[in-house]
C-alpha cells in the first residue's frame, strides 16, 4: 500500500526571527513531507528575505494581512497531500513527528486526526524541554470533552485531507488563534474519532504579549465557539445535561464580566455578569460584583485600595 503524502502548512506574520527554524524542522523530518507551504500573511518584517534560501524547498505565498485562519485556509486550499500538518511559524517539530503520527493514523483508520503532547520552550530564558503533560489527551469519540476545554495544540495536528474537505476549514470570524483551532477540532470531533500520541512531538515556543487584552479576547471567542456549537447541535445541551451546560456558560460570562470590571468598563461588565447570574442565580459573589458596577468608579477604586491595604497589613512578611 502506498504511504500517504503530507502537506505542511506554515502560516506566518512578522515571524522572521522564528520561521526559518520552523521550516528547518519540517525539512528535517525522518519521513519527508510531500510539500511545505508557507503562507505569509502580510508580514512587514524580514520574513520574505530570510526565506529566500528555502525557495527551492517550499511553496511560498504572500497575501494581504487577513489573520491566521485565512492564512491556514489558503494553505489548505493550495495543499495537494493526503494528510495536512499544521506548524506555527514560532514552533519547532521534533525529527520523528511526522513518522510517528503517520504510523498512528495507519493503526487507527477510524481516526481523522492525531495530536500529541508538547514541550514548552521559554523564548525569553532559553529554558526548554519542560513537558506539558496533558492530563487527558483526547482520543476516540471525544466530542463532549471539547465542551469543557480544548486540549489540542495545532502544531501537533496531523489530519486527513478528506476530513477537512467535508468539515470545512477554520472560522475566519474568530479573532484569537487559540480559539480558531478550538472551533475546528471540535467540529471534527463531532463526526470523527481522534487519536492521541502520548509523547511530545513539538517544541512550543512561549513568548510575551499583552496578556489582559489577549485573555479577554480569548474568553470572548471561546464563548462564541461554545454558543456556536450549541446552536449547530440542538441535542448537545440535552446530552451534556443542564448543570454542565450552565456551569460552562456561567464560567465564560463571569470571566468576561470580571475582566471588564477589573479594567473599569462597568456597563460592559454588568451585561456579562447579568448573563452569568441567569446561569447561576444563587451565586452571591456575582450579585455583589454586579452591584458594584453601579457604583461611581472613584468609589470602586477606593474600595480596591482599601482591600489591597488590608491584605498588605495582614501579610506576615511585611
From TrEMBL:
**Gene3D superfamilies, sorted:** Spore Coat Polysaccharide Biosynthesis Protein SpsA, Chain A
Give residue ranges for domain Glycosyltransferase 2-like.
7-166
Which controlled-vocabulary keywords does the entry list? Plasmid
Specify the protein name: Chondroitin synthase
Q: Which organism is it from?
A: Tautonia plasticadhaerens
Organism lineage: Bacteria, Pseudomonadati, Planctomycetota, Planctomycetia, Isosphaerales
Q: Which gene encodes it?
A: kfoC
Amino acid at each position: 500500500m502506498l504511504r500517504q503524502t503530507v502537506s505542511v502548512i506554515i502560516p506566518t506574520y512578522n515571524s522572521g526571527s522564528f520561521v526559518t527554524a520552523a521550516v528547518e524542522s519540517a525539512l528535517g523530518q525522518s519521513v519527508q513531507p510531500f510539500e511545505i507551504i508557507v503562507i505569509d500573511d502580510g508580514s512587514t518584517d524580514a520574513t520574505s528575505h530570510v526565506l529566500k534560501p528555502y525557495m527551492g524547498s517550499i511553496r511560498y505565498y504572500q497575501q494581504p494581512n487577513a489573520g491566521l485562519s485565512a492564512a491556514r485556509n489558503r494553505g489548505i486550499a493550495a495543499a495537494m497531500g493526503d494528510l495536512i500538518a499544521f506548524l506555527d511559524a514560532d514552533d519547532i517539530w521534533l525529527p520523528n513527528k511526522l513518522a510517528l503520527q503517520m504510523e498512528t493514523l495507519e493503526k487507527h483508520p477510524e481516526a481523522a486526526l492525531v495530536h500529541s503532547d508538547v514541550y514548552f520552550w521559554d523564548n525569553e530564558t532559553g529554558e526548554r524541554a519542560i513537558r506539558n503533560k496533558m492530563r487527558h489527551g483526547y482520543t476516540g469519540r471525544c466530542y463532549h470533552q471539547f465542551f469543557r476545554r480544548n486540549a489540542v495544540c495545532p502544531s501537533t495536528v496531523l489530519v486527513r485531507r478528506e476530513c477537512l474537505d467535508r468539515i470545512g476549514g477554520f472560522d475566519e470570524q474568530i479573532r484569537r488563534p487559540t480559539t480558531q483551532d478550538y472551533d475546528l477540532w471540535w467540529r471534527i470531533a463531532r463526526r470523527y474519532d481522534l487519536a492521541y500520541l502520548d509523547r511530545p512531538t513539538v517544541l512550543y515556543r512561549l513568548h510575551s504579549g499583552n496578556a489582559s487584552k489577549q485573555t479577554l479576547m480569548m474568553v470572548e471567542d471561546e464563548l462564541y465557539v461554545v454558543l456556536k456549537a450549541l446552536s449547530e447541535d440542538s441535542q448537545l445541551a440535552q446530552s451534556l445535561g443542564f448543570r454542565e451546560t450552565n456551569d460552562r456558560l456561567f464560567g465564560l460570562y463571569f470571566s468576561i464580566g470580571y475582566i471588564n470590571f477589573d479594567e473599569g468598563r462597568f456597563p460592559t461588565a454588568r451585561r456579562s455578569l447579568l448573563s452569568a447570574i441567569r446561569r447561576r442565580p444563587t451565586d452571591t459573589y456575582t450579585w455583589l460584583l454586579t452591584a458594584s458596577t453601579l457604583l461611581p468608579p472613584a468609589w470602586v477604586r477606593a474600595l480596591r485600595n482599601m482591600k489591597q491595604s488590608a491584605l498588605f497589613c495582614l501579610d506576615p512578611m511585611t
